[in-house]
């Protein structure tokens, strides 16, 4: 178990090599400089020996001064070299940390939504911050000193043994028990540090959730309960940290006591040898000075090992995220794939066999088409029925289709399959006849635009938030999109117009205002296909009517699928599809479905009266 842990810790740390490569020149120079600096501490005792046996024994003051000067120069050189090592390493290792952080962030952006469903944000946050900081400290400090101190100890013992092998052996006696102890310690410490780092991630999640959910917490007077939950997690982490400190304390105590005892024994033996004139006082001083110079390298091994272990854990945690890439899971982000030359294996894996044969009749391929699409969430219970179970739907070119269904029927899930936020587990989805599974990401993004039910704004200004909806959009596109979403009025009234900061660190906007900005973001690129998840839900009746009118203009130029809960939204559409039990149960005009489907009529018996004449009129 210990051997396995050792090798796996080393294997984990070796995975840092590609990131460290750009800094390896400086790192090696830094280690070399530290080795030279450290060897100064071993040369000083040799100078002391000459000093004691020469000028001091011979009562030669000028010789003492000279010796003293030599010791001073050596000391200054040691300090200067250690300073140089820091200067050499600081910049490139900060670069390594930054590169690792960027790689993690880039990867997080590309990982499929299913991954983010599974991982808590605190766990990701702690990997991107605490773990990477630990790794920088390891590379800058622990790695160098493990090498340097290991070398110093080896060279020091060679010097001790050549000076006086009998006394040297006395000092070597604690080595075997120390090695056994270090191995035992490593195993336990590694376990504790993994637990502590995971618990720190959980704690970060709680903090993040309570900051984001502060309104709910206050609104429901839950702050005491939140505090208790936080205190419990915090106490757990404290307990683990104390266990780590206890382990380190025990190791440190033994690592300090054993060599001290050995030095004491060597001193007694050495004094006896000096009294018996078999050893000169200078040789004893040199021997003991060398032994004392080795104290720090030996003592440091304990916490250097602890740091190395924590860093191995941090590396494991970092690569758990970086290695996470289900094949084709983010097909839309899985890199460039040729258009129209068939689907890559990864993207087609798990698809319903034989679906390819069921091609639509010629002439009906344009528009958005679902063919026997099935979907099951990766983390759903194995015996749970699939959310979508053979969806067949054709949104004709230029048509607006409303998607209606009971809450939890899978409407949002269905829309999320179009931009491939999730991969369909069976069947296929085509845009103008082209299977989205074989489409390069850029093309899919250019064709399809989305506005989600939860309008998310980033910490940026209003304009930037809208412009991120399309590559290369300009100022006039922004103005048009804001006008279409009927957002131009309230944006102009903001303190700095569309340059007003919004999002977490900016001005708070109302739900309806956010929804209109999300809509502007969806339409700014004039997409061929528009997918809107209940885009009018947060608007008051007056604004809803305004946005509706604007939406009609947009919808007239695209092929759209609009999730609708209310008759007013349904009336924007040419036809309506009813999603029920994982399938499209009925398709028709609003009026037809009201008559034909009891479920639809029930769903639509909302507060707003239907306006059949307008809803049924073909555009
Ligand atoms: N990330 C997820 N992992 C597992 N199951 C999920 C996930 N998201 C949704 N579900 C489940 O899938 C089903 C469909 O959810 P979906 O959000 O698509 O429904 P909906 O029709 O859009 O509902 P609503 O009208 O309330 O917005 C629900 O049973 C839901 O619990």
From TrEMBL:
Give GO cellular component annotations, separated by semicolons. Answer: plasma membrane
- In what residue span(s) does the ABC transmembrane type-1 domain sit? 28-310
What is the membrane topology here? Multi-pass membrane protein
Q: Care to name a GO molecular-function term for this sequence?
A: ATP binding
Superkingdom to which the source organism belongs: Bacteria
Q: Where is this region: Disordered?
A: 329-364
Q: Which Pfam families match?
A: ABC_membrane (PF00664), ABC_tran (PF00005)
Q: Where are the transmembrane segments?
A: 27-48, 63-84, 133-159, 165-185, 245-268
Q: Which UniProt keywords apply?
A: ATP-binding, Cell membrane, Membrane, Nucleotide-binding, Transmembrane, Transmembrane helix, Transport
PROSITE patterns per UniProt: ABC_TM1F, ABC_TRANSPORTER_1, ABC_TRANSPORTER_2
Q: Which Gene3D superfamilies match?
A: ABC transporter type 1, transmembrane domain (1.20.1560.10), P-loop containing nucleotide triphosphate hydrolases (3.40.50.300)
Domain (ABC transporter): residue spans on this chain = 368-606
Keyword Membrane annotated: yes
**Where is the protein found, in the record's own terms?**
Cell membrane
- PANTHER family given in the database record: ATP-BINDING CASSETTE SUB-FAMILY B MEMBER 10, MITOCHONDRIAL, ATP-DEPENDENT PERMEASE MDL1, MITOCHONDRIAL
This protein's name: ABC transporter
Q: Please name the source species.
A: Streptomyces caatingaensis
């Amino acid at each position: 178990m210990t051997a396995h842990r050792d090798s796996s810790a080393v294997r984990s740390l070796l995975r840092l090599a590609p990131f460290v490569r750009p800094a390896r020149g400086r790192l090696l120079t830094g280690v070399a400089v530290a080795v030279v600096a450290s060897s100064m501490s071993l040369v000083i005792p040799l100078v002391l020996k000459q000093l004691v046996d020469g000028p001091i024994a011979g009562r030669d003051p000028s010789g003492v001064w000279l010796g003293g000067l030599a010791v001073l120069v050596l000391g200054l050189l040691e300090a200067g070299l250690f300073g140089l090592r820091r200067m050499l390493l600081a910049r490139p290792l900060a670069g390594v940390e930054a590169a690792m952080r960027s790689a993690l962030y880039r990867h997080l952006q590309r990982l499929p939504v299913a991954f983010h469903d599974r991982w808590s944000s605190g766990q990701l946050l702690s990997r991107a911050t605490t773990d990477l900081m630990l790794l920088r400290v390891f590379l800058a400090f622990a790695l160098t000193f493990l090498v340097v101190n290991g070398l110093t100890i080896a060279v020091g013992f060679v010097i001790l043994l050549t000076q006086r092998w009998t006394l040297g052996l006395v000092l070597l006696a604690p080595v075997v028990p120390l090695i056994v102890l270090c191995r035992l310690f490593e195993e336990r410490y590694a376990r504790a540090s993994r637990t502590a780092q995971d618990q720190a991630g959980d704690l970060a999640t709680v903090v993040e959730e309570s900051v984001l959910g502060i309104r709910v917490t206050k609104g429901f007077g839950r702050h005491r309960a939140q505090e208790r939950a936080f205190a419990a997690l915090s106490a757990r982490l404290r307990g683990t940290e104390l266990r780590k400190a206890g382990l380190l304390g025990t190791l440190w105590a033994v690592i300090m006591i054993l060599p001290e005892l050995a030095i004491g024994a060597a001193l007694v033996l050495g004094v006896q040898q000096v009294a018996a004139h078999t050893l000169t006082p200078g040789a004893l001083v040199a021997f003991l000075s060398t032994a004392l110079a080795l104290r720090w390298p030996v003592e440091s091994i304990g916490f250097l090992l602890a740091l190395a272990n924590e860093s191995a854990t941090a590396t494991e945690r970092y690569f758990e995220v970086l290695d996470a890439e289900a094949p084709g899971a983010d097909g839309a982000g899985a890199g460039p794939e040729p258009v129209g030359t068939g689907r890559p294996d990864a993207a087609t894996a798990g698809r319903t066999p034989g679906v390819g044969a069921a091609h639509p009749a010629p002439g009906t391929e344009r528009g958005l088409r679902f063919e026997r699409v099935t979907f099951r969430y990766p983390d759903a219970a194995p015996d749970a029925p699939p959310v979508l179970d053979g969806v067949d739907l054709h949104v004709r070119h230029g048509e607006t289709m409303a998607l209606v269904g009971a809450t939890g029927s899978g409407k949002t899930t269905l829309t999320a399959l179009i931009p491939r936020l999730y991969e369909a587990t069976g069947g296929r989805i085509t845009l103008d006849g082209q299977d989205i599974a074989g489409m390069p990401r850029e093309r899919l993004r250019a064709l399809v635009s989305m506005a989600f039910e939860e309008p998310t704004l980033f910490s940026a200004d209003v304009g930037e938030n809208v412009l991120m909806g399309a590559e290369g959009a300009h100022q006039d596109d922004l103005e048009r999109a804001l006008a279409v979403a009927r957002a131009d009025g309230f944006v102009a009234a903001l303190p700095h117009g569309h340059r007003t900061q919004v999002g977490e660190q900016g001005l708070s906007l109302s739900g309806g205002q956010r929804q209109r900005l999300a809509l502007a973001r969806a339409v700014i690129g004039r997409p061929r296909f528009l997918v809107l998840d209940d885009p009018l839900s947060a608007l008051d009746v007056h604004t809803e009517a305004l946005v509706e009118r604007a939406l009609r203009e947009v919808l007239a130029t695209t092929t759209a699928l609009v999730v609708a809960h209310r008759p007013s939204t349904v009336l924007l559409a040419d036809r309506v599809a009813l999603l029920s039990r994982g399938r499209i149960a009925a398709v028709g005009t609003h009026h037809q479905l009201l008559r034909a489907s009891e479920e639809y009529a029930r769903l639509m018996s909302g507060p707003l009266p239907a306006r059949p004449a307008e809803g049924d009129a073909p555009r």
